[in-house]
Write a structure and sequence with these properties.
This protein has about 160 residues and is of the alpha+beta class. It is built from four helices and seven strands, in the order E-H-H-E-E-E-H-E-H-E-E. Pfam families: Acetyltransf_1 (PF00583).
Length: about 160
């Protein structure tokens, strides 16, 4: 499945649908107080880049947001990955890997040294995916400290990519 990755405005009908599906999925797994999903308004804030994966026909297949640098809840030079989601019909075709690879490369060119993220213990596919692409489990950070349904990961970006 051919995909292109670009930074786009989150305020688009196709992306609203991906965010809706993502929210429904998270709510099916975790109680509302344990969902830390950014809204469209939060995704439009300075310091947030929204990456969109599209197929050859231009249809949105997946989305991921990077809350960069000083806005991240973790260590200096880190950015937090938020709202990573691939449409169910596009799963199993490498969309998530392509999206993450492009986002990491872009982050490195912007001086980000580490990507941090939070997911949940019932998100088995996400846990396996992040581990398979080099993310390591780290202690809970920021707003996730003390959260029963949070698992945090981090990945240091290669120095040669920066």
């Amino acid at each position: 499945m051919l995909t292109t990755i670009s930074i786009e405005s989150p305020r688009q009908p196709e992306l609203a649908e991906l965010l809706r599906l993502s929210g429904e999925y998270a709510q099916s797994l975790y109680p509302p107080e344990s969902n830390f999903l950014l809204s469209v308004e939060e995704l439009e804030q300075p310091g947030v880049a929204v990456y969109v994966a599209r197929d050859a026909a231009g249809h949105a297949l997946g989305i991921a947001a990077l809350v960069g640098g000083a806005d991240a809840a973790g260590p200096p030079g880190a950015a937090e990955l938020k709202r990573m989601f691939v449409h169910p019909d596009a799963r199993g075709h490498g969309v998530a890997g392509h999206l993450l690879t492009e986002m990491e490369a872009d982050a490195a060119t912007r001086g980000i040294r580490e990507i941090i993220l939070e997911t949940g213990p019932a998100s088995h596919a996400a846990l396996a995916f992040y581990r398979s692409v080099g993310y390591r489990e780290v202690p809970l950070f920021g707003q996730y400290v003390g959260e029963e349904f949070s698992v945090c990961f981090a990945k240091v970006l290669p120095a040669d990519a920066q």
